[in-house]
Amino acid sequence: MKVPSELIPHCPVCGKPMTMNLRSDDRFVEDEGWHRAAERYNTFIEKNRNKNVVYLELGVGGNTPGIIKYPFWQLTALNKNAVYACINLGESYCPDEIIDQSVCVNADIGKVIKDLIE
Q1: pLDDT tens digits, one per residue of 7-21
Q2: Under 8 Å between Cβ of 50 and 79
């Protein structure tokens, strides 16, 4: 169960082994554009934290819940005027603490959007 060394892709510039850009360790690529976007997002969240807000989650699975799912749950729990809305086939759920502020639709996103348009 080993991968032959010659099958591991290497950087054409420095020659080091390459890996996928996943948030799994300290090697996730966060360039200047990424940091500017993160700052704009955080500013928006802070500015609207206590307003009437819908945290709309579309198709977020369990692979990286710390980026969208968990923060949306926390922000909803902290704001009585917030609603958590999730559309996801097979993974549409929320914690009991925010169930009264949530709308979870267990369906295909494409079908839901089509139904809304019609």
Answers
A1: 889 999 999 888 777
A2: yes
